[in-house]
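Need residues for this backbone.
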């Protein structure tokens, strides 16, 4: 794994690590019985702050794309997660969430047209099994509604991750992209919170600190880092990083809440960490199936600025056309691809002399 890729992976891993603190923060600091309100506070205020401060709004197709991505990654995911957590033991719910890398691998084939990375699929299975060893207990029941909610939540987040990769853009900063989705997800959660939980709970000082942590760090910062990682790393590798969240939750449960952590849990912890590391190494093995190069960045229109096209670097063995970009006949606005030229002609264009003994 290259240094830059390794650094991006480590930075992206901070997002699920922060999300792993949600359980202990919720149980120890926040008012009980208001999970939807916690999800609302985690998303909507941070998103509105981004819109108010940076004043960059989506335009065109990015209105409905932001709404869809915000609903999948936040607005739908949070309620499904909470239903699963309420109707199933925490270990079962966490194990269902750990199947997300496998769902992403399948969606990447259909949406991103990537060949399946059997290396990562295998480690995804191993990682989910490891999480199961860490969090499953002997009294793990299987409520049908909880199971459906857990699987639907994993599918929602997996589809959101895959579409975020498919529609990725470098035209706006990750914090702006996160702000759009946090606002959209919060707007989806707002009526659900009012319908099912009614008035907001009374909040004391520790609760206020918990909400600030969930909204600022667990919301804005974590999602900005997460979306940046999705845009620059293989989507299946990013999905595997999601295994960090239940592992951090289990570790904090053992340290902070004095929960049991025996030999079986230690074995599962090691399995999941091994799967995490091995899944990231796939790209360093020569770019196998499922590690196709990231597609060209799509142009995006934002209110307050004109749309522009992000140029794609010329392919090896080609030279860019000098001056204005030529347009392909019959296709307005579509740049003609660079023309292949012989190496001697390319050197001549650059004004570089050719050695007498050079053969082309």
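Answer:
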């Amino acid at each position: 794994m290259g240094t830059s890729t390794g650094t991006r992976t480590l930075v992206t891993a901070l997002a699920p690590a922060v999300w792993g603190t949600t359980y202990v923060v919720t149980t120890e600091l926040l008012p009980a019985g208001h999970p939807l309100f916690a999800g609302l506070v985690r998303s909507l205020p941070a998103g509105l702050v981004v819109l108010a401060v940076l004043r960059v709004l989506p335009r065109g197709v990015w209105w409905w794309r932001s709404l869809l991505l915000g609903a999948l990654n936040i607005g739908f995911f949070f309620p499904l997660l909470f239903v699963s957590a309420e109707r199933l033991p925490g270990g079962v719910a966490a194990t269902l969430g750990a199947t997300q890398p496998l769902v992403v691998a399948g969606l990447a084939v259909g949406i991103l047209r990537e060949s399946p990375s059997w290396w990562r699929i295998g480690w995804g299975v191993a990682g989910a099994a490891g999480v199961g060893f860490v969090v499953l207990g002997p009294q793990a029941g299987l409520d049908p509604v909880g199971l459906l909610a857990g699987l639907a939540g994993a599918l929602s987040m997996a589809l959101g991750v895959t579409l975020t990769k498919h529609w990725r853009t470098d035209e706006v900063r990750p914090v702006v992209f996160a702000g759009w989705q946090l606002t959209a997800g919060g707007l989806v959660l707002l009526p659900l919170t009012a319908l099912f939980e009614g008035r907001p709970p009374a909040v004391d000082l520790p609760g206020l600190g918990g909400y600030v942590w969930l909204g600022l760090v667990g919301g804005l910062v974590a999602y900005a880092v997460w979306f940046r990682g999705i845009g620059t790393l293989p989507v299946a590798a990013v999905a595997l990083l999601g295994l960090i969240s239940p592992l951090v939750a289990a570790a904090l449960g053992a340290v902070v809440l004095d929960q049991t952590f025996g030999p079986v849990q230690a074995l599962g912890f090691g399995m999941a960490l091994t799967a995490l590391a091995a899944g990231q190494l796939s790209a360093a093995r020569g770019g196998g199936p499922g590690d196709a190069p990231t597609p060209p960045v799509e142009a995006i229109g934002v209110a307050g600025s004109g749309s522009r096209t992000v140029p794609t670097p010329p392919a090896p063995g080609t030279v860019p056309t000098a001056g204005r970009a030529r347009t392909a006949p019959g296709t307005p606005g579509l740049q003609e691809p660079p023309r292949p030229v012989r190496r001697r002609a390319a050197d001549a264009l650059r004004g570089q002399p050719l050695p007498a003994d050079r053969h082309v």
